[in-house]
């Protein structure tokens, strides 16, 4: 009967159980903080994610509402017919500016 009367302060498993409880609370708090982050892309209605940009194994994931589409690159260079749509300029700050072509020829009238 000595086992039933054992002092709880001497049992090391009690402190280990308390540590597990503390870590579970911390993990739950972190998960709640991540879910409520305003920068969370999964809360947005429309999201586009580009993985491995510029690489042969590039992927584009587009979320529109509840529909998710995934496009994978096969590494081949695209080709086809078309016309010049405009000119893109890279600015000094790194931003890009697109200037579309004006199909109407403007004259000095």
Major sheet size, sense and barrel closure: 3 strands, antiparallel
Q: Give, in order, the helices and strands.
A: HEEEEE
- Rg, please? 29 Å
Annotation, overall tally of beta strands: 5
What is the helix content?
10-25%
Distance between the termini: 110 Å
Mean pLDDT: 79
Structural class: alpha+beta
The shape is elongated
Helical stretch count?
A: 1
Uncertain segments:
none
* Proportion of residues in β-strands: 25-35%
**Largest beta sheet: what is the strand line-up?**
1-2-3
What do you see in this structure?
This protein is an alpha+beta fold. Strand 4 and strand 5 (96-100) form a beta hairpin. A 3-stranded antiparallel sheet has the order 1-2-3, with no helix packed on it. Strands 4-5 form a two-stranded antiparallel ribbon. The N and C termini lie far apart (110 Å). The chain is 22% helix and 26% strand. The chain contains 1 helix and 5 strands. The mean pLDDT is 79. The protein is elongated, with a radius of gyration of 29 Å. It has one helix at 12-35, and strands at residues 46-51, 59-64, 67-72, 86-90, 96-100.
Write the layout of secondary structure elements.
Blueprint: H1 12-35, E1 46-51, E2 59-64, E3 67-72, E4 86-90, E5 96-100
Antiparallel strand pairs: 1-2, 2-3, 4-5
Summarize the entry for a quick read.
Helices cover about 20% and strands about 25% of the residues. With about 110 residues, it is of the alpha+beta class.
């Amino acid at each position: 009967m000595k086992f039933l009367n054992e002092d709880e302060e001497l049992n090391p498993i009690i402190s280990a159980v308390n540590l597990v409880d503390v870590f579970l609370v911390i993990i739950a708090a972190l998960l709640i903080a991540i879910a409520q982050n305003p920068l969370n892309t999964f809360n947005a209605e429309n999201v586009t994610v580009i993985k491995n940009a510029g690489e042969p194994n590039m992927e584009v994931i587009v979320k529109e509402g509840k529909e998710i589409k995934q496009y994978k690159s096969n590494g081949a260079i695209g080709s086809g017919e078309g016309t010049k749509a405009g000119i893109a300029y890279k600015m000094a700050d790194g931003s890009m500016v697109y200037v579309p072509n004006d199909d109407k020829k403007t004259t000095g009238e």
